[in-house]
Amino acid sequence: MSQKTSPIPLPSGADGFIRDDRANNEFLVPRKAFTSPEVLAAEYERIFSQCWLYAAHASELPEPNSFVSRRVGGRELIINRDSDGEIHAFFNACSHRGAMVCREKTGKNKWFVCPYHGWAFNSAGTRVAQDNETGFPDGFFDGGSKDLTKVAKLAVYRDFIFITYNSNAGSLSDYLGDAAEMLDLVADQSETGMEVTEGNHEYSMRANWKLLLENSADGYHAMATHASYFDYLQSTNGSFRSDFNPSDIGGACTAFGNGHAAIEYVAPWGRPVAQWVPQWGDQGRDAVNQLMETLIKRHGEERARRIGEKNRNILIFPNLVINDIMALTIRTFQPVNEGYLEVNAWSLAPKEEHADVRKFRQYNFLEFLGPAGFATPDDVEMLELCQQGYKNMPEPMWNDISKGMSKAINGSDDELQMRTFWRRWNALMTAD
Amino acid sequence: MSYTREQIEDFLYHEAALIDEWKTEDWANLFTEDAEYLIPPTENPDANKDTALFIINDDYHRLQQRAIRLGKRTAHAEFPHSIVRHMISNVRIISQSANDLVVNYNQVVYRSKRQITDTYICSATQHLVPDGDSFKIRSKRVILATDTLRPQGRVSIIL
Asked: Is residue A254 located within the same domain as residue A385?
């Protein structure tokens, strides 16, 4: 599409909106992609309304009639189980005049009753007749046209619940493709299933949503942005693996289809599943060693070591991040406007986790991750500095994401994961 | 001996001044060695720190490290330091025994940086231990009186 006719005000060329110059190993992204309301409107239409989006984890719906309500891809949903335990996702809007029928974040509801005129729906979304209802013809509520509206499609992979607003979307398993293996490596940490623990982080950043996507699997920024975090680890007895050699980090980035990518590497910090550090004491060592033994029994030595000892930062296009590092976080985020995003993050853990290990996990999570951790606030600062720096356009027009482009295999501190995202983004934004 | 609200308020104002003046290591030294500094999740202020995901769950070591980190240029979110002011009110002594005073109060904390001012509305509970003419803090639990951390986005200061 030419620049003149495109409703998306980005410089376009042979590659679309990005400059993907494989001959010269240069990859550029226009800064206007982060600052334009028209780009955001196009992203809502072409990405958030088309792709599969992470909505909830099945463990958040433990029983029949359990529900959560939250924004997914900018829209207000109720995600629940009906009385038979089947999972649904409804738009949180009454079929009568559109008021939200659910105002609680979580709970158990057999019925959703609209507070405005009293229309009632059961947990399968079916409108339920009220006594003394007059003024409507016989059969008016039959046939489901006044039920709660379901999202176009819902599918569950290893307890990760995804939805899409696109009735023509292909299957979730086709969408995830080979990236599903990354979710397997997370789900396989438990014998009885993973669960989202109590407490979550709902915060925000004054930055474009794509900045957080880039940041969430950016090994390159760690030493500069998080220098004070590494200082902290060094000042904390036993927080580093005593047998750790920095040359062990290794690390590789894998680009999957459909814009998904992950980096996998070894790190000096402890992992609740299943890498002990001296800080956790002898009792902790026994618990973690036992975990590794059961992993080996279930998955064999090689896969067990990969599950338990490797770290993974997983990007599922467009806005799901699973960071399986010193703790395990599910993080999803969405734009409110071009310069402001909302983040929701949860801590995921094996249901059968030993109480001591659960304690390490939650303690660990906070020292790096979360809005008051020793690292995430500095990430927020960086993303906000970027967003402010983009105000200098048009002169410095392009972001550079070329690192690693000339290498056959990208390490965890290269930038293939971001290029993978942008290539998919570009394809969707320029599609006819 | 029993303490008056005025004595407690003097201590809380002193603690707040140390934070507002960025004397973070002096602030950390107000705590006992078995201390905790906690911000529970917004949806459940009564949550258990060993099982639930908190916003802050510092033991003495980590709150000391938090204080040291905030003095570094590489604590980027707070370099240069934001402007912080604590407003404390509604102070109540809930109970007092020889070695444990339980104090409740409300506070509003303002943080200004790059021409944006964020407001943290909180209630807090402290367990205090008499220490000479003053007190040491054994536990400080700050409850965010907002349903999420939007729009502040972070707690990069000490509340």
From this structure: yes
Amino acid at A118: G
Which residues of chain A are under the pLDDT cut of 70? 1-5
Cβ-defined contact of A201 to B39 (cutoff 8 Å) = no
Parallel, antiparallel, or unpaired: how do β-strands A328-337 and B31-39 relate? unpaired
Mean pLDDT of chain B, nearest integer: 96
Yes or no: say if A206 and A387 are a contact pair by the CB < 8 Å rule.
yes
Same structural domain, A363 and A236? yes
pLDDT reported for residue A3: 46
ipTM of the complex: 0.95
Same domain, A246 and A299: yes
Does an H or E element contain A319, and which? none
The residues, any chain, with a CB within 8 Å of residue A268's CB and separated by 6 or more, are A233, A240, A241, A244, A246
- We report the CATH number of the domain holding residue A294 as 3.90.380.10
Report residue A26 as tokens: 């240069």
Say whether both A274 and A391 belong to one domain: yes
Q: Residues of A with CB below 8 A from B78's CB?
A: 377
CA dist A315 and A254 (Å) reads: 10
| CB proximity B87 to A under 8 Å | no
CATH number for position A76: 2.102.10.10
DSSP state of B149: S
Domain presence at residue A158: no
Rounded to an integer, what distance in angstroms lies between the CA atom of residue A156 and that of residue A154? Answer: 7
| Residue A307 within any structural domain of the chain | yes
Contact in structure between A78 and A67 (CB atoms under 8 Å): yes
- For B5-144, CATH number? 3.10.450.50
3 state SS of B20: helix
Beta strand A87-91 pairing with A106-108: unpaired
Instruction: Please report where in the chains the tokens 């290794």 appear, as a residue.
Output: A250
Whether A371 sits inside 8 A of B155 (CB atoms) is yes
- This model's pTM is above 0.90: yes
| Of residues B51, B74, B154, nearest to A227 (C-beta) | B74
From the centroid of its chain, how far is CA A179? 13
Query: What domain count does chain A have?
Result: 2
Residue with tokens 């009753």: A113
State the DSSP string of A165-228.
Answer: S-TT---HHHHHGGGHHHHHHHHTT-SS-EEEEEEEEEEEESS-HHHHHHHTT-GGGHHHHTHH
For chain B, positions 109-148, list CB contacts with chain A under 8 A.
114, 116, 148
pLDDT higher at A130 or B3 = B3
Look at residue A250 in the predicted model and tell me its pLDDT: 73
B70-111: pLDDT as tens digits: 999 999 999 999 999 999 999 999 999 989 999 999 999 999
Distance, in angstroms, between A225 CA and closest chain B CA? Answer: 7
Contacts of A132 (CB under 8 A, 6+ apart): none
Residue A62: C-alpha distances to residues A71, A91, A198, B140, B145 (Å): 20, 21, 13, 33, 28
> Which residue in A199, A202, A235 is closest to B52 by CB distance?
A199
Domain assignment of residue A195, given as a range: 188-430
